[in-house]
Design a protein that fits this description.
This protein has 194 residues and is α+β, with helices and mostly antiparallel strands. Strands 4-10-9-6-7 form a 5-stranded mixed sheet, with no helix packed on it. A 3-stranded antiparallel sheet has the order 3-5-8, with no helix packed on it. A two-stranded antiparallel ribbon has the order 1-2.
């Protein structure tokens, strides 16, 4: 006897006539495959439940060895503290070079470095900048050996990339010449006037 059964074949389902034995075998095969799928599903559930099992806390002796401590910082009043910390600033990208001397070239910039001056020589400092953004001001200070300011000059750069400051003739003594770009030191020199 032939039974008509719907089987998968190709892109869709097809109806074929099979003997009764073949129908029984196909039905048995479907049953076995569905049982295998059920067994695999239960195995996955058991493994995931076993892996998520919460661990029991340690014994009483193990729990007693752990001590919790809390530390808090004691607030400090720094309103009257004298802080004298120097913060290093790398200005190597903004200032190309700075030079102190007495003679200038055709452009009006110091041509030779000099740290020892005579009483009749003017003290000059030139600063060369890599960048000159809008609104930039440069300045120079002349300080005596005690750190007191003897002279200060300030100039707006207006896009210029070099500047020279002149402090004129100075009395004999040790001085420090500092050139600034904006508020940052661009060059600092120790000089002596004899």
């Amino acid at each position: 006897m032939m039974t008509r059964i719907r089987l998968r074949s190709g892109p869709g389902f097809a109806i074929r006539s099979l003997p009764d034995a073949a129908v029984a075998i196909a039905a048995e095969r479907r049953t076995i495959i569905s049982r295998q799928r059920i067994i695999i599903f239960y195995a996955i559930v058991v493994i995931s439940v076993a892996s998520c099992r919460r661990q029991e806390p340690g014994t009483q002796a193990q729990r007693e060895t752990v001590q919790r401590t809390t530390t808090t910082a004691v607030p400090q009043d720094l309103s009257n503290a004298k802080v004298n910390t120097v913060i290093a600033f790398d200005n190597s990208g903004a200032v190309n070079r700075a030079r102190v001397g007495t003679t200038t070239d055709k452009a009006g910039l110091v041509s030779e470095d000099k740290v020892s001056f005579t009483r009749n020589e003017p003290v000059l400092i030139s600063i060369w900048l890599n960048e000159s953004p809008a609104g930039l001001q440069t300045s120079a200070k002349l300080l005596d050996s005690e750190g007191k300011q003897v002279a200060e000059q300030r100039k707006p750069m207006d896009g210029a990339k070099s500047v020279t400051f002149s402090f004129g003739k100075q009395k004999p003594g040790a001085y420090r010449v500092i050139g600034y770009w904006g508020g940052n030191i661009g060059g600092e020199f120790e000089i002596v006037v004899r």
